[in-house]
Amino acid sequence: MSSLIVSTVNVNGIRAAVKQRSAQNLGLLPWLTETTADVVCLQETRADDAQLAAALAPALSDGWHLASAEPHVKGRSGVAVLSRHRIEATRLIESDEFGSHGRYLEADTAGLTVASVYIQTGEAGTPRQSEKERFMAVLAARMAKLACAGRDAVVCGDWNIAHTENDIKNWKGNVKKSGFLPAERQWLSELLGTGWADVVRELHPGRPGPYAWWSWRGRAFDNDAGWRIDYQLATPELAARAVAARVERAAAYALRWSDHAPVTVEYR
């Protein structure tokens, strides 16, 4: 595999991300024009395949290739992969419950497998959390198979889990909330223990952040009171090729086009 740059971002609704700050020539489409990324994973598109293709039409005309998994409920979830290279094959997650939910999509492109994933937000002690945990189990099983496939792979997206205290600014106030529950953090530790590498953390060891999600409310963004929940988990040989990782944080609150910022990794 030659040098490759992979980005991931939760767009918080594809149509909003395209229109947001459009008067200022900002938003997802200008970002796609300017980015150096070869592959971009999108989450929470909240659009069916036709709506997504229509929203991304200018980017597709510029040569981007698109694969997508639409949500099964209107206005929820939805994931996609954009690539400057031909997309050779795609796969959904194998699950009777989640296969059509638009939360996971694999694409073979540029000599590796890139997956876009969107784990549920969850809510501690409710059926929503139980659903999240069922999906986590299915995801771990799929990633185990992917790791054994003998092909470089990276699973990118919004995992809705802050792994350690360094991954959330206000960790003390969230120890009993979904996204920072002990069981969720242990699940992620066990997943990493099977050989998958948290590439951004390995390139930014022993320090808070870099955060990639901030609430729209209050001054969370201005105070960098964020969460690091957007990961790129790579197979060992691919992870060893990672030389740089960054969060493309907007220069100011008024310039944001999503509540997440793109997380970009360069592999050589």
Automatic annotation (TrEMBL):
Keyword check for DNA repair: no
Residues annotated as the enzyme's active site: Y118, D158 (proton donor/acceptor), H260 (proton acceptor)
Keywords: Hydrolase, Magnesium, Manganese, Metal-binding
Residues flagged as site, Important for catalytic activity: D230
Coiled coil: none
Domain Endonuclease/exonuclease/phosphatase: 8-260
GO molecular function: double-stranded DNA 3'-5' DNA exonuclease activity; metal ion binding
One Pfam family, short name: Exo_endo_phos
Co-factor note (free text): Probably binds two magnesium or manganese ions per subunit.
Binding residues for Mg(2+): N10, E44, D158, N160, D259, H260
Family, similarity comment: Belongs to the DNA repair enzymes AP/ExoA family.
Name of this chain's protein: Putative exodeoxyribonuclease
Annotated organism of origin: Mycolicibacterium celeriflavum
